[in-house]
Amino acid sequence: MAKTAKEKFKTFGNVFDRFTIRNIFELSSRGFFEEGSLSPISIGKESNVFSAKGKNGKVILKIYRLETCDFNRMYKYIRNDPRFLGLKKQRRKIIFAWAQREYRNLFRAREADVKVPKPIAFLKNILIMEFIGNKEAAPKLKDAVPSNLKKYYNKIKRYTRDFYKSGFVHGDLSEFNILNFNDNPVFIDLSHSIPIKSPGASELIERDVKNICRFFNKHGLKLDYKKELKEIIS
Ligand SMILES: Nc1ncnc2c1ncn2[C@@H]1O[C@H](COP(=O)(O)OP(=O)(O)OP(=O)(O)O)[C@@H](O)[C@H]1O
Ligand SMILES: [Mg+2]
Asked: CB of 116 closer than 6 A to ligand 1?
């Protein structure tokens, strides 16, 4: 039976403010997904992630919470990004810029042939992207260790190098932000990606490579992260 607007509001009401709910309805009325089909996947520090039924299969909604996200932390990261110079330190402005930045980063990654979810739309604090998975969302790399470690690592290395060569660093790369989809890596959570010319970018690429090497070494490889880093950035 179809729900009334009031009932729908109640469904989201515990999680989101009115402004966000209005934007969810707006995006669904534009045809990006069926409004009644939202189903929760994850609750993160800053965002809630849902799957929903889109026109051509499932989509993902990543919704940054307006009230409970740490916008001071976001501001610290985004103010170094030359694409967002002059951004005022106002909670909503920063959160909207953050969602928009992730959307743009997904495009840049795809241009560099890095496997990431296809960006579909953004509105204010909401980002819509391709659903990575079959029936269920693909597991994180940390929960689905690949059988051929070396081959899998090399794919991640190639993505990291190609993204770097195209002028970007992921910035938050680890086994938590890579999905293992049918034994292939898909990078997600590009909210920290910045151009390599930004202040702090060289620390980020070093940390990304270190994280990945640590994970693969834990599972049996013998990678020297300094050597790997050199090969990625040279
Ligand atoms: N496109 C996608 N397809 C399938 N699952 C996804 C997709 N995007 C995100 N997820 C799932 O949602 C989880 C959270 O997503 P993501 O890493 O982008 O946000 P987060 O870590 O909560 O962000 P924050 O840094 O704001 O805390 C992922 O670990 C993954 O399980
Ligand atoms: Mg994440």
From this structure: no
The answer to whether 143 is a known catalytic residue is: no
Two tokens, residue 184? 């292939």
Domains contained in the chain, CATH given: 12-130 (3.30.200.20), 141-233 (1.10.510.10)
Choose among 53, 25, 27: nearest CA to 39: 53
Q: Which helix (H) or strand (E) holds 41?
A: strand 39-43
Using a 6 Å cutoff on CB, does residue 228 contact ligand 1? no
User: Which residue out of 33, 42, 47, 69 has the highest number of ligand 1 atoms within 8 Å of its CB and is therefore the one to mutate?
Assistant: 42
User: pTM value?
Assistant: 0.94
Quote the DSSP letter at residue 51: E
Q: Cα–Cα distances in Å, from 215 out to 140, 147, 227?
A: 13, 14, 16
pLDDT tens for residues 59-73? 999 999 998 878 899
Name the amino acid, one letter, at 231. E
Ligand 1 pocket check for 74: Cβ under 6 Å: no
What b-and-e string marks burial along 43-52, b requiring 16 or more CB atoms within 10 Å of the CB? Answer: eeebbbbbbb
